[in-house]
Amino acid sequence: MVETIMTTSTPLTEGTPHLGRRRRWTLLVTVGTGLLLITLDNSILYTALPTLTRELDATWSESLWIINAYPLVMTGLLLGTGTLGDRLGHRRMFLSGLIVFGLASFMAATAPTPEVLIAARGLLAVGAAAMMPATLALIRVSFPDERERNIAISVWGSLSVVGGALGPIVGGALLEHFAWGSIFLVNVPVVVVAAVVGVAVAPADDPHPDVRWDFISSVEALVTLVGLTVLIKEVARTERDGTVLLAAALTTVVAWWVFVRRQRRLPFPLLDLSIFRNAAFASGVLAATIAMFAMGGLQLATTQRFQLVTGFSPLESGLLVAAVAAGSLPSSLLGGMFLHVVGLRVLIGGGLGVGAIGVGWTLVGVEHGLFWLLGGLLVTGLGLGAAMSVASTAIIGNAPARRAGMASSVEEVSYEFGSLAAVALLGSLLTTVYTLTVRLPEGAPPEAARSMTDALTAEGTGPEVLDAAFQAFGNSYEVVMIVCAGVLAVGSVLTTVLLRRYGPGSESSAYGSSH
Predict the structure, then answer these.
(1) What residue ranges carry the coiled-coil annotation (predicted)?
(2) pLDDT tens profile 351-400
């Protein structure tokens, strides 16, 4: 039984023409390219982080903000840009976002200080936030047939997985031959090509002037996420600042309360909270968040461990975690193709469960050799690919077409918040567990107790100090992997319960192609 999430639905505007088959799939490639850039920039810094920290003389905290600025700003803006796309037209939002993304990439590539790079990453997020909901919304309105649309969304989801997995590889490969700025500069020519093709194939804008974009709600959402991010980072620190902790907690709670209250009073809210009553929609959001949290934590921790402890190059560590993408591609593509047969419950609940097993396998495999480690990463990707391939379908298929931008925004917020939480919590946890468990010998440089990076670069670091540091960082890696596996296992149980009515052969969407 499909649960109703809206009391009324409005047909897609009659003036919106159906695109020809070739044009539809060319559009999918174009918006997929934009999505690939967005997700690639989310993870490209995982392998580049040690190099950036060294070249810009950044502290560990600044390094985490260089990563966090991108998903934080993007997540805070996504709800607003999705609704703005409903109002102004998704074609306009996609092309405008591409231009901003290209300009910000050039700014990031030439940044002279950590502060400028953080600002450039924030501007990158503005462009990404404009593009991202538009990519999925354009698919929603351009593919009228539900099964064809499911396949298109699964391809779109696969590109999201591929972009996240390619980030460490691309970053490592570029750093092998070029300066660190190349990891951002590579975006520029791709942006130019995508913009030219986008102008030619994207459907004409179909704006809905009756949809209202509320700037105040966007600010409230951003403040909520900033407060939550600071709160997570502060909780994970060993030396907590009580004032900062209290201020972050109060800011998060008050901003969220004000945001929710405002949404309930607006005729066109940025976030229609009633949509979460649909079990498929809610499960899709939960699965997307949890899958990206686990994938982001796994990639960040694994690339750092093998670069800092084992001595892998950025490219080698990037190729290692690419096994997650290799495992996810077949299950991601097949998930969308056979969703109407298998059902959401098996693919989402089962996929997260398989992912949990894979992370546990990966943790054990670290001690038994590279072959076992790769096996665990492949199994992890197999599970997460299945869940993520249909999480987007569960979200976008259970909202009316006139609110495609809002639904796309919720979907993107889910993915981005998962990545953001992974870096904020698990990135801080890597350092926290290290400082709590490191046992340095007498006479060791005091800075070696702060982080693994400091232990490697501190003057006077000898073999005994490095052995102690390696052991402590191994403890950090183990804790992070256990957290990832535990979150996936809990997510598997929750989504399986929520999707008890969405078994094999069940309908996955509450809305047909014209609603």
Answers:
(1) none
(2) 999 999 999 999 998 888 888 999 999 999 999 988 987 887 888 777 66
Instruction: Of 287, 268, 273, 326, give the one whose Cα is nearest residue 508.
Output: 287
Instruction: Please tell me the least confidently modeled range out of 2-11, 213-222, 317-326, 453-462.
Output: 2-11
CA 256 to chain centre: 21
Answer for the pair 163, 37: CB distance below 8 angstroms, yes or no: yes
Taking the C-alpha atoms of residue 260 and residue 268, their distance in angstroms, rounded to an integer, is: 13
In DSSP notation, 16-45 reads -PPPPHHHHHHHHHHHHHHHHHHHHHHHTH
Reported as a pLDDT band with limits 50, 70 and 90, residue 7 is: very low
CA angle at 90 for the pair 218 and 262, rounded to the nearest 5°: 25
**Cα separations (Å) of 63 from 12, 60, 66, 129, 290?**
45, 5, 5, 22, 24
> Could you give the CA distance from residue 40 to residue 38 in angstroms, rounded to a whole number?
5
Residues 386 and 356: beta-carbon distance below 8 Å: no
CA distances from 400 to 148, 149, 199, 280, 446 (A): 17, 14, 26, 14, 59
Bigger pLDDT: 279 vs 156 = 279
The burial of 360, by beta-carbon neighbours within 10 Å (0-12 exposed, 13-18 middle, 19 or more buried), is given as: buried
Is 60 exceeded by the pLDDT of residue 14? Answer: no
Can you list the alpha helix ranges (DSSP code H) found in 44-113? 45-55, 60-88, 90-109
Amino acid in the structure at residue 361: W
Residue with tokens 């174009």: 30
Could you read off the pLDDT of 415-473 as tens digits, one per residue?
878 887 887 788 888 888 888 888 888 777 877 777 787 787 777 677 888 888 888 88
Cα gap 110→283, rounded to integer Å = 41
Q: How confident is the model at residue 509 (pLDDT cuts 50, 70, 90)?
A: low
Please state, in angstroms and rounded to a whole number, the distance separating the CA atoms of residues 488 and 234: 24
Phi, psi of 443 (to 5 degrees): 85, 0
Structure tokens at 366: 């670290």
